[in-house]
């Protein structure tokens, strides 16, 4: 059994993919636009260039993503994506990159359970946690 997150960016998927590629080294494994759907009868003309489905890889994890209904109002509530960094220096690099243009909820710092831990919301509204385990 495998569980994969599927994230709906509601019109900003391609921008998010480009950001994740630059910020945290994501690799796009697949990308399909609404214009490629065999039945175009339900595709709005303004959505044709939007992302119907994509798969991107961060480290060992593949995340699925789409523009969904392309309404421009994504709502990411009740979950966070977690990045496990090899050490505190890598955690700082990743945390700084993912938080760029977003909002830091809990600054990256040493905690009782981790060498480094922090929480941020990226500029698309996705909640992230970055952790470097204690040695």
Secondary-structure map:
Elements: E1 6-8, H1 13-24, E2 27-33, E3 51-58, E4 61-66, E5 81-85, H2 88-99, E6 103-109, E7 116-121, E8 127-132
Parallel strand pairs: 1-4, 5-8
Antiparallel strand pairs: 2-3, 3-4, 6-7, 7-8
Task: Characterise the protein shown here.
With 135 residues, the protein is an alpha/beta fold. The protein has 2 helices and 8 strands, in the order βαββββαβββ. It has helices at 13-24, 88-99, and strands at residues 6-8, 27-33, 51-58, 61-66, 81-85, 103-109, 116-121, 127-132. It has a 4-stranded mixed β-sheet, covered by helices on one side.
In a nutshell, what does this entry contain?
The chain has 135 residues and is an alpha/beta fold. It is 18% helix and 36% strand. It is elongated, with a radius of gyration of 16 Å.
Keywords:
single chain, 135 residues, alpha/beta, 4-stranded mixed sheet, 2 helices, 8 strands
Question: Order of helices and strands, N to C?
Answer: EHEEEEHEEE
Distance, first to last CA: 30 Å
Average pLDDT reading: 96
Strand content: 35-45%
- Number of E-state strands: 8
Q: What is the spatial order of strands in the main beta sheet?
A: 1-4-3-2
Based on secondary structure, the structural category is: alpha/beta
Residue ranges: pLDDT <50 for 5 or more in a row? none
User: Rough shape?
Assistant: elongated
Helix percent reads 10-25%
């Amino acid at each position: 059994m495998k569980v994969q997150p599927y994230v709906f960016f509601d019109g900003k998927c391609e921008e998010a993919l480009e950001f994740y590629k630059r910020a945290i080294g994501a690799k796009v494994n697949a990308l399909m636009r609404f214009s490629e759907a065999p039945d175009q009868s339900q595709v709005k003309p303004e959505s044709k260039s939007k992302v119907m489905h994509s798969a991107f890889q961060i480290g060992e994890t593949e995340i699925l993503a789409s523009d969904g209904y392309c309404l421009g109002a994504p709502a990411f509530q009740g979950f966070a994506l977690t990045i496990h960094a090899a050490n505190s220096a890598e955690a700082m690099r990743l945390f700084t990159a993912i938080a760029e243009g977003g909002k830091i909820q809990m600054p990256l710092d040493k905690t009782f359970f981790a060498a480094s831990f922090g929480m941020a919301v990226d500029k698309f509204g996705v909640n992230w946690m970055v952790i470097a385990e204690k040695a």
